[in-house]
Each structure stands twice: as C-alpha cells, then as structure tokens.
Amino acid sequence: MAATVDTILEGAALEAWRSYLQSHASIVRMLDADLVAEHGITTRDYEVLLYLSQADERHLPMSALAESTMLTRSGITRLVDGLVEAGLIERVACPKDARVSYAQLTDRGYSKLREAGCSHVRSIRRLFLEHFTPDEIEQLASLLGRLPGAQPGRGCTASTDGGRQPAGPGDCAAA
Amino acid sequence: MAATVDTILEGAALEAWRSYLQSHASIVRMLDADLVAEHGITTRDYEVLLYLSQADERHLPMSALAESTMLTRSGITRLVDGLVEAGLIERVACPKDARVSYAQLTDRGYSKLREAGCSHVRSIRRLFLEHFTPDEIEQLASLLGRLPGAQPGRGCTASTDGGRQPAGPGDCAAA
DNA sequence: CGGAGACCGTTGATTCGTCAACTACAATTG
DNA sequence: CAATTGTAGTTGACGAATCAACGGTCTCCG
C-alpha cells in the first residue's frame, strides 16, 4: 500500500501538477500572442528589455542576461542579435574585461519597454493575478517560491534594498 | 495612486508571477533531462504514451492527442512520427471515418511507459510535490485549477467516472 | 615570465514546434 | 444528387532554442 503512494500520482497531487503544466502553457502562449500583436516583440524580448532597464546604467553582460532569462548563452546571443537589429539595444565592449560585452538598452529600447509595459502587465493581471485574492497571491508566492529555480525575496520592491527602483521604466513596468 | 496599482507588478504579485515562470522553466528542464538520460524519451513522448495508455483500447485520434498535450495538430504529427519510428506506437486507420488515423500504443510502447513511469513520477515528486505538505498541495490544486488552460476536476481518480483506471499502466503511472 | 585552466561570447549543426497551405474525406444544404 | 462548407491529418518553410566546438581573454601559480 505504501508502495503505490510513491509510484502513482493521483488526486490533488495530480491535479496540482497538471494544472501547473497546462496553465503555464496556455498563459504563456496567450501572453506572447498579445505582446507580438500589439508591440511586435516577444515575451523574451520584453524580459530582456526589462532586466536591462532595471540594471545599473541599463546594461548587463550577456551571461547575466542568460542567467536571468534562463536561456543558454548561445540563446542570448541570438536573442540580442535580434534586438540590436531592431535598434532596441546595443552591444558595448567592457573596458575592464575584454571578454565580456555588455547589452546596453538604447533610448528606443526604453521607449519600447514603456510602451509595451502597460499592456503586458494588464495581460498578466488578466490571465494570472485576477483569478486570485490578495491573500491567495501571497500564498502562491510563498508556495511557488520554494520550487527549484525560483528566487524567493528577490522582488524589486522588497524593502531590504531601500524600496526604490533604481531607474525603473516609470509607471509601467515589471514582470 | 490607483493608476500605479494597475500598471505595476510588485510585492507578492511579482514574486508569485516570477516564481511561477522560473520554477516552471527549471523543473521542466530537469524533468526532461532525467527522462532523456534514463529512458531516451522526452517529456512530450511520455505524455503521449501516458494519454494513450489511459485511453479506450489504448488508441486516440491525432487531434485528441493534440488537445491533451496542448500541441498543434502539426506538432503531434511530427511527435508521433518519432514514436512510430521508435516502435512505441503505430498508426491505425479508423474504419468509421477515413479522415482520422489513430495513434495506437504498441506493447513495446506500453513497456516503455511502465519502465519510465516510476522514475518519472519520482522526479516529479522530488522537483515539485516534495516541497509541499498534503494540505498545501490541495491549496495549490485549487488555486492553479482556476487558471486558463487548467481543467479542474479532470483527474484520473475523480469519483465521478467510477473511480477506476480503465487500463492504467499498472502500478507506475500518471503525470 | 609563461603555461594551465577557467571563463565569455559566438558560430554551425541539429531539434522541436509553429504557421500556412494542401489533400482527402465527411456532413450539410439546396 | 451536386455543391458548399467543415474537419483530420500531413507537408514545406520558417523561427527559436539547444548542444558542441571554437577563439579570444583573464587568472593563478610554478
């Protein structure tokens, strides 16, 4: 009897796992469709612009971007290629270390981010947050924060870092 | 003031959303790596085998598979191509409707599923379920079940369908 | 100094999934 | 019955991300 408990997924465990997988697939797909339709950039593009906008001097080494976005260094190279071609970011050599090359947010990139931010955040609210009460969102944050890959407490508005966005994209931001 | 609430993601909302995205990326990646390393099939492959094993006569039309896996019909065609080549499933024409072609689980496919099932479920437990108490898993199931794409209450062990697995893969199954 | 090893970013080849177009068949409607 | 409309599945062309391998650079230690 104890054996089956280990080798079968059933009841709430199965529901939780399936909902986790399926909701993610649906939400990400719709989110991306919205962003592409309205602003011509993908969610990944948006993510990169956002991370850059929050970074010191609005630039980051490629590997930092790779880590934040959970992409390969190779993947980031190609993603950045596209954004450079679109004029949203530039590559800047690092004077201290010739190996690293910074991705630098351009003014156009910053504008694009602000432009896309509002509707993107609206989409996230509509597809994700709106289904929960504030209490439930805190529960979710606490629960999901324990999973591998999640970095609990790294939120931008956490009170430990002074509570202010260094150079956030104004009033439309953050995902 | 009310405006910023709508256009900024912060605090628990931001943490919940980021954890949701990042944990999913990490978990799925590790899960897939495990499955490929140990059994030479991907998570998608596994999913298809599992759905077939639970289906009547262990076969399903392509479009049913597409819907279950949240893939395109086109994507399923290619995925099934691979599984057919590996001898894990076969294509069978439908006598009633010449348009549909069934994906039919072979004995080898069934064996492969049983073989992979145990370790896969173990991985899911380790990466996902083990981080929560039973109560928390129920909370999660209830919360995530509300999201778009999730099909709440469709669990295999739901009491509405008689409570028995039609032809489940024995004692190792289900994700 | 000089070599060993680690690290950063890019590239080529490959895999995986999508979209759009197409074929074949079924169902509906006049 | 014929024509239209809709559905199932496959295919070609493409985009996105990966892995493996490479070239250039830094660091550490003999």
Describe the structure.
2 copies of one chain form a homodimer. The first copy, chain A, is mainly alpha-helical. Chain A has one domain (14-140): Winged helix-like DNA-binding domain superfamily/Winged helix DNA-binding domain (Arc Repressor Mutant, subunit A), CATH 1.10.10.10. Helix content of chain A is 57%, strand content 7%. Chain A contains 7 helices and 3 strands. Chain A has helices at residues 2-7, 11-39, 43-54, 62-69, 73-85, 107-127, 134-144; strands at 59-61, 89-93, 101-105. A 3-stranded antiparallel beta sheet of chain A has the order 1-3-2. In chain A, a hairpin with a 7-residue loop joins strand 2 and strand 3. In chain A, helix 2 runs antiparallel to helix 6 (107-127). The longest helix of chain A is centred in the N-terminal third of the chain and has 29 residues, at 11-39. The radius of gyration of chain A is 19 Å and the shape is globular. The relative contact order of chain A is 0.12. Chains A and B meet through helix 1, helix 2, helix 6 and helix 7 of A and helix 1, helix 2, helix 6 and helix 7 of B. Chain A binds a DNA duplex (30 and 30 nucleotides) through residues 42, 44, 61-63, 71-79, 97-101.
